[in-house]
């Protein structure tokens, strides 16, 4: 059964609950819930997941414990949660990398489509194509044209990550000589473009630097516009065919009671929709991007397919 089909079945099951399933949802949760974060403490995913947990536990009536499990681009944590009991008490706050980027590149020991049930999505950082404010490139089209007459370097947080694969796709589509320079993290890639060691960078934390006039935002990789910069086009608006959305959302092990998944989706969506959470996320320079479990399923499925195509084209 396909990933999206399973989500549809889960939704239908919620509508036609058996008495036993209804009782399960009514009594859930009866003990603390654990949310596994696949990164170290202090990052934006960790901080935002902890805020979601703090606000959601007030609505659920039970503590929510956040457990950090960094390593292997988030895949260690995904394997742990995939193998956990499907009772609603072990969840993961996942992002693009362990959900569909890394699984498109290699065997990670789990199948995102088969081993998890999406609950909902609450964020997903915009990734911007940025250049120094005094760069001759005024638009993405300028950058691509420049890369057709001579190599243009761009930095990202690492080789074969989402940003690298995205711009590799742009290079293939346009024939531009976009030369990738990998760095150990997005902050180092940002420092490199500020220092003019690379011509451009594809990074998430660009808002303040663009507003301060240190960087110029040429485009966003995501399928939706950054509301802080309405004049910056998406890749499709810039005339390209691909989009590369980011996610930050919750998954449960496959087989979790649909009634429990539905209850969690309702509570987490209520939290993410609140003004308090929006203000909190704005302070992190992170967007609130709410998707239902069904829409998150479609996003993961579509991006797994897209990244597998790119990885194959790159010979991976």
Explain the overall architecture.
- The protein has 13 helices and eleven strands.
- The protein is an alpha/beta fold and 316 residues long.
- It has a six-stranded mixed β-sheet, with helices on both faces. A five-stranded mixed β-sheet has the order 7-6-8-5-9, sandwiched between helices.
- The chain has helices at residues 3-15, 19-27, 44-60, 75-82, 96-105, 112-115, 140-149, 162-174, 186-194, 207-211, 258-273, 275-283, 293-313; strands spanning 33-37, 64-68, 90-95, 116-123, 128-132, 152-156, 178-182, 200-203, 215-220, 248-253, 291-292.
- Helix content is 46%, strand content 18%.
- It starts with a helix and ends with a helix.
- Helix 3 (44-60) links the parallel strand 1 and strand 2.
- It has two domains: 3-124 and 246-313, D-Maltodextrin-Binding Protein, domain 2 (3-Layer(aba) Sandwich), CATH 3.40.190.150; 128-220, Periplasmic binding protein-like II (D-Maltodextrin-Binding Protein, domain 2), CATH 3.40.190.
Short description:
This protein has helices at residues 3-15, 19-27, 44-60, 75-82, 96-105, 112-115, 140-149, 162-174, 186-194, 207-211, 258-273, 275-283, 293-313; strands spanning 33-37, 64-68, 90-95, 116-123, 128-132, 152-156, 178-182, 200-203, 215-220, 248-253, 291-292. It is α/β, with parallel strands linked by helices and 316 residues long. It has a 6-stranded mixed beta sheet with strand order 2-1-3-10-4-11, sandwiched between helices. The chain has a 5-stranded mixed beta sheet with strand order 7-6-8-5-9, with helices on both faces.
């Amino acid at each position: 059964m396909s990933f999206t089909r399973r989500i549809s079945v889960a939704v239908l099951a919620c509508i036609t609950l058996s008495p036993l399933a209804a009782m399960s949802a009514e009594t859930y949760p009866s003990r603390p819930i654990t949310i596994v974060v696949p990164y170290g403490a202090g990052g934006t995913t960790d901080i935002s997941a902890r805020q979601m947990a703090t606000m959601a536990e007030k609505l659920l009536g039970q503590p929510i414990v956040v457990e950090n499990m960094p390593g292997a681009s988030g895949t260690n944590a995904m394997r742990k949660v995939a193998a956990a009991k499907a009772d609603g008490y072990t969840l993961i706050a996942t992002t693009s990398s362990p959900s569909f980027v890394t699984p498109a590149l290699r065997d990670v020991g789990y199948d995102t489509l088969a081993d998890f049930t999406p609950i909902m999505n609450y964020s997903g950082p915009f990734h911007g194509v940025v250049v120094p404010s005094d760069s001759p490139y005024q638009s993405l089209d300028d950058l691509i044209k420049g890369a057709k007459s001579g190599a243009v370097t761009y930095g990202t947080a690492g080789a074969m990550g989402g940003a690298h694969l995205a711009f590799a796709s742009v290079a293939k589509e346009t024939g531009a000589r976009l030369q990738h320079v990998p760095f150990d993290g997005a902050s180092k890639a940002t420092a490199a473009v500020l220092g003019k060691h690379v011509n451009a960078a594809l990074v998430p934390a660009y808002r303040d630097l663009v507003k301060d006039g240190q960087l110029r935002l040429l485009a966003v990789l995501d399928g939706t516009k950054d509301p802080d910069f309405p004049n910056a086009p998406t890749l499709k608006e810039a005339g390209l065919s691909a989009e590369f959305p980011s996610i930050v959302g919750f998954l449960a092990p496959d087989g979790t009671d649909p009634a429990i998944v539905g209850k969690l989706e309702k509570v987490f969506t209520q939290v993410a929709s609140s003004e308090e959470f929006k203000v909190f996320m704005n302070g992190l320079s992170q967007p609130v991007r709410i998707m239902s479990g069904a829409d998150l399923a479609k996003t993961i499925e579509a991006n797994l397919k897209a990244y597998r195509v790119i990885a194959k084209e790159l010979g991976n």
